[in-house]
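2024-03-11 09:14:02 DEBUG pipeline.ingest accepted 1 chain
2024-03-11 09:14:02 DEBUG pipeline.ingest length=290
2024-03-11 09:14:03 DEBUG pipeline.predict start
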Amino acid sequence: MTRALPPLGWFRAFESAARLSSFTRAADELGLTQSAVSQQIRSLESRLDCTLFERKHRGIELTDKGRRLLPEVTTSISGLRAVVDAFDRTEHTTLLTINTSVSIAQWVLAPRLGAYMSREPGIRVRLVTSVWPDHMRRSDANVHIRFGGRRVEEADARQLGTTSLSLVASPTLIGQPRDVQLSDAELAEHSLVQSVGTRDVWSRCAPQFGYEPANHDGILVDSHGLAIDMARSGAGIAFTNEWLAQPLLADGSLIRVHPHSIQGSDGYWVSVTSTRNIDVAQRFVAWLLE
């Protein structure tokens, strides 16, 4: 006998808490109390007979089973939202759905989308963001922007920016208002912020800067955008994508702590992933590449 599906609200509470890494912020987003969100997630865990979150003193973290469930739930909720969007759409409005990383949404799209919307009246934009590459495919997205190497199956993918990697820091942390070159010992005095999950790791790249990789411990984050945030806040020196950091380098919020950059193996790629509204999607990609 087939068991009844858990209520949609349980899944919504789980997806929101996982995305925001907080029961409290999920409650604010859903218009519920923190205890209600916590109870719904406990009910879902009981129904699935597994633990989805590790409850820690300073927050929550997905378990392996929670990480396995999240992309399926996110895809399903995105599909439902797409159906609702289709009913909400007027005949004069076209919805452009962009599936991208949080880093691109924050550091590339957010400063520029206002100009795009002025250029394309009648277009609504929906951003769907993810951190992990295997979560990023969305069947309802018109445009997909991802981080990684070029894939054979994405022959039409175009590269955004460069793959150059640099060492950047807040001038306040370094005590210098402009670019400098730190010695190996000086670099070791600060935490090194690295983005995990890429093929360019510090142990392989450090010698190209003339540094000893074993001398530098630090902070691991899950995206280049977060590494840039950490550097800007003074948490450490970020080894990160130079193109993504360029706006902050230009306005002096960040400085280089080594004059050279190295060529990374991973970069940002944009492609049109749906035939729906393809003209709008292609115009958006062309505008973005400008």
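2024-03-11 09:14:41 DEBUG pipeline.report Residues 164-263 form a domain with the D-Maltodextrin-Binding Protein; domain 2 fold (CATH 3.40.190.10).
2024-03-11 09:14:41 DEBUG pipeline.predict end
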